[in-house]
Amino acid sequence: MRDRHGTPFEHNSFRFHIRAPIFVAREWFRHRVGSFNEFSMRYAKATDDFYIPEPEDVRSQVGKPGAYSFEPVDDELAERTVRSCARCTSTAFETYERLVEAGVARELARSVIPVGAYTEFFWTVNARAPDELRLTSRAETAQREIRRYADAVEQFFAARMPVTHAAFVAANRTAP
After folding, report:
1. This prediction's pTM
2. Phi, psi for residue 29 in degrees, rounded to 5
3. Adjacent-strand bridge partners of 38
4. How confident is the model at residue 75 (pLDDT cuts 50, 70, 90)?
């Protein structure tokens, strides 16, 4: 890693079963590292499991794209936001269920499901790929929710590949 030779880190394999809100999964897929296989609401019935932020996670976005800062909002707005998210997802899921029960194909009915719905996918990677995810997802401008997943991936690798993880840290978190 010190000499920026990445291929030695590509001769292993890990498969993760990830459960995350759709909006987090879409950010994850953008990294284009590893292989993905996502659960499809086209073939299986959606569930009523949605990400609803905790009040302390409700924040404002200040600045321009790529240079955001995130600021807390007042308690009343945070509570109102949480209630609004819960009401919206409940209404969307009820609409989805009514459409499916009426005979509308799941592949069409799923269009009313918001991106806060949880999805599941398998992610198969070698030891080089999570470094890329950690680098881009740990930045202060990255969305808090994906940063939490990136932190969990890093903890996994630190426990399973401590020498490789230590080299990554020693290289100022610069992936080869």
Report:
1. 0.88
2. -65, -30
3. 121
4. very high
